[in-house]
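LOG
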Amino acid sequence: MQKIFKKLYKKLLGQTAVYGLSSVLVRIFPFLIAPIVTKAFGPEASSPFVDWYSIAGVITVLLTHGMETSFFRFAQEDHISKKTLVSTTSVSILAIGVIYLTLGYVFRQELANAFQTPDQVNYLVIFLFILSIDAFSTIPSAVLRLEGKPIRYMLSKVLGSLVYFGLVYFFIKILKNHPEGILGLKYNPKIGVGYVFIANLAQSIITLLIVGREFVNFSFASFDFKLWKRIMNYSWPVMIAGLAGIVNQTIDRQFLKYFLPDKVARHQIGVYGAVYKIATFITVFRQAYQLGIEPYFFSSFKDKNSHKTYTILMDVFVICNCLIYVGLMVNLQWISERYLNNPLYNEGIEIIPFVMLGALFLGIYLNLSIWYKLSDQTRVGLYISLIGATITTLINVLFIPKYGYWASAIAALITFFSMMVISYIWGRIAYPIPYNTKKILAYISISVAISFISFYFFRENYWVGNLLFLFFILFIIFMERNLLKKIIKKN
């Protein structure tokens, strides 16, 4: 057990800490950008920004088509050279990206019309390039993670994000207030929220330039068609599952657009997209955890003690998520009002508890999903995600016309909870891992109880809310005292 913890400690509190920092910093800049956008533009004006980015995940999954997960999986096979693996996966992404860009550019006006933004064709083209460049960065970024180079990985993400935030701030906060212009540049009101896309393009280019050094092992001649067929057999269920997963997370904005009257839809998309950002605190931790731990999962699954390690990791993951959830909930009112920065968005605060709880369930599901990736049963992820997509679609289609974004928020909560439960039950049968289920359920239940009591009965009494939060922290410390002693000892 001591050896397990030592190895786990090195990964979880070593590289994952760096990935966590980079993930926090990368996420914090879009998080800081959102109030700038909401203050400068009302819900209707900002809705194209929310609308387009709501389908970005779908396109990204198609462009990368499961190659990142497959890269980690096949990197564990010693007979496959690094050059062959990098080249094969990269050529696959590059080929799909070129086809996507070509078709997107040729049919750019038709796409703009479909998104009900016929006058924003130029920014749609920028959007296409942003997603393509991000996809091209996938494999070199994966190489950095696999080889344990978190510092360079962090540099690529953070530097790009700094440029993104800096340009948005310059265009909207500085240039807009200088009618005479700065260095020949003048703010154009017709561009409006399009300045965010321009800044995002600069970010993507910088990120690709930094990680591009890892293409040193890339060669078209090293593309292995037989290996590619093996990879695709593994990755296509991952891709479909990813598509269904993204549908579960973001397609509700599209339902809002098409199932509500035009003006109402734009308002609700703007509000829903803005308040959804507040769940960033939970998704940041989830992403940091996945970035640091996923390569470790694949490299350690043959170890005889791997199941014990996964049990510890799940405990740590759930505890951290519960603490973040309660901490946010007891301070949600003032955090939301200051973050949204515009009273036109405040109506959406009521749905945030459900959005964040859904994000917590999604994180647990993604952590559970490692069993079918390790056992090469990726089709299971496909089936679970399709079930989730069906639930999402039915609830949104049936209830959005009457309840608007409330239907979307509840649909996400029910979907992620269902996927979490299905994955747990299926995993118990096919690839049993001895999770501390009763303890995990207790932590989640207490977290939800404290959070909802605080939000609905002591919403603006922050003394009571934070006192409850403090009691919860002390309870966690008492329950996990042995784990904490080991961490302190190793530190």
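LOG (cont.) second protein
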Amino acid sequence: METTIPSQSPEPLSAGLGSDKPASPSVIGEVNDETELTKLDPNYVPALRLTAMVSSVPLLFGALMAEAVFVPELGIPSGIVGLVVLIACAFWIIRIPTRRYAARGYQISVDRLRVVRGILWHSDTIVPFGRVQHIDVDQGPIERFFNIATLTVHTAGSHNASVQLPGLNHELAKDMREEIRAHIKRESL
């Protein structure tokens, strides 16, 4: 029996680089390494950018303080430290969120969830639903603003006892939680 989880036109993610071609709606099927991954919600990129902007403010403030205190004593031309930090922050805000979005994806099947993530350190995690203890759908203020959520699946055991899947549409995350919960309920009967 195949079950369909509604989503907002998920797109495949191939080889961690992303793809511009749209995919058919996510159908629960077989999970394997050759199957293309479903992309996260496109609102995840601006949410990551806003988070990066907020986290860059203390770094920029520190660079301005270093400019005021240390640059005159060291004889470095004024503005160099601030310019270097500004370029690094711009890279952090513009490029890194796009790369993180492209490097993440998931697959959901009848009995397991596969989560792939990582730019430098690649992680490919498969969570069998039989090991799931409980499931959370979390939203912070930035996620709420962009209508996205993080699905956290807590499993039995101590190694990687929870797997997070951020950047899902909020409704899709709730539907996935209910689908996993229904599978656990069916399996326990």
